[in-house]
Amino acid sequence: MDHPDKLFRAACPPRRTLTVKAKAYVSHGRKKKSGYPRGAWGDTLTPETRAIAVSPDLVDAGLGYKTRLTIEGLPGEYEVLDLMHGRWRKTIDIYFGDDRKAARLWGNRTISISWD
Fold first, then answer.
1. d(CA 115, CA 86)
2. Residues near 33 by Cβ (< 8 Å), separated by ≥ 6?
3. How many domains does the chain have?
4. What percentage of residues in the chain have a pLDDT greater than 70?
5. Is residue 3 part of a domain?
6. CB-hemisphere CA count at 13 Å for 77?
7. How far apart, in Å, do the first and last CA atoms of the chain sit?
8. What is the pTM of this model?
């Protein structure tokens, strides 16, 4: 019989980690006029949604639609639900719902993200 460590390593591939630039974005109060914003694939982004937008090169690196990931400095998991303009490289936009204060506090950072 195989050693348990060997069995568990085979069943759980290592998480991928990448260093990216991370910015913040908010709904800009659109909910009152035309509803909540939608991501690139049509998902509605409510204030409770834990979503990010990724630069196109990160989609090619394995961060496609609905990929779940962790973000250094933020609790919980986030999901890729939006796509950034092609001019951005190795960059994510973190959706902060309607919380402009939290988005301003986040600002622009270089952080690590991890996903399976």
1. 22
2. none
3. 1
4. 84
5. no
6. 10
7. 27
8. 0.84
